[in-house]
């Protein structure tokens, strides 16, 4: 029986390539995206593949996936400064509400989840290279603040879920 992976942000650059990889590895893939910054053209070659399903879903709203999910790759987020500066509230919601909705699905399915983040959220580093114990030099209200804080909250929320639910 094929394992099923749910990929958020599936129509984005990274998400679409992850869909390709997991299809190649014979997984069933459910790709979800609200298409605000993603492009369905990135997935057009997969639409007829029987192991691939695309669902247009805004993960910041409550939703259900009525299939057993084994793995979740959470890559939903505007990543370009051009995008997240145009849609700052949506960017914050994806990192907060969207992440919690995805964590709930992981918990319900006992699925393994991987969240995507970046060292960019720790600001301009004061040390090079950064150690794992380095927490950053961040301006939470600067131009990048909406992206950085959404990702930082996503990491904190995921850690809290892991600590609380095991």
Provide a descriptive summary of the structure in words.
There is one protein chain. This protein has helices spanning about 15-25, 80-85, 90-110, 145-165; strands at about 5-10, 30-35, 50-55, 70-75, 110-115. Helix 1 (about 15-25) links the parallel strand 1 (about 5-10) and strand 2 (about 30-35). The chain starts with a strand and ends with a helix. The chain has a 5-stranded parallel sheet with strand order 3-2-1-4-5, with helices on both faces. Helix 3 (about 90-110) runs parallel beside helix 4. With about 170 residues, it is an alpha/beta fold. The model has no long low-confidence stretch (mean pLDDT about 95).
List the helices and strands and how they pair.
Layout lengths: L3 E5 L4 H12 L3 E6 L18 E5 L14 E4 L6 H6 L1 H22 L2 E4 L29 H21 L1
Parallel strand pairs: 1-2, 1-4, 2-3, 4-5
Helix pairs in contact: 3-4
Provide a brief overview of the structure.
The chain has 166 residues and is an alpha/beta fold.
Radius of gyration: 16 Å
Across the major sheet, the strand order is 3-2-1-4-5
What composes the largest sheet?
Answer: 5 strands, parallel
Shape: globular
Summarize the amount of helix as a percent range: 25-40%
How many β-strands, per DSSP? Answer: 5
Task: Give the count of helical stretches.
Answer: 4
Amount of beta strand: 5-15%
Output the helix-strand order: EHEEEHHEH
User: Spans of 5+ residues with little confidence (pLDDT < 50)?
Assistant: none
Structural class comes to: alpha/beta
- N-end to C-end Cα span: 27 Å
Can you give the mean pLDDT?
Answer: 94
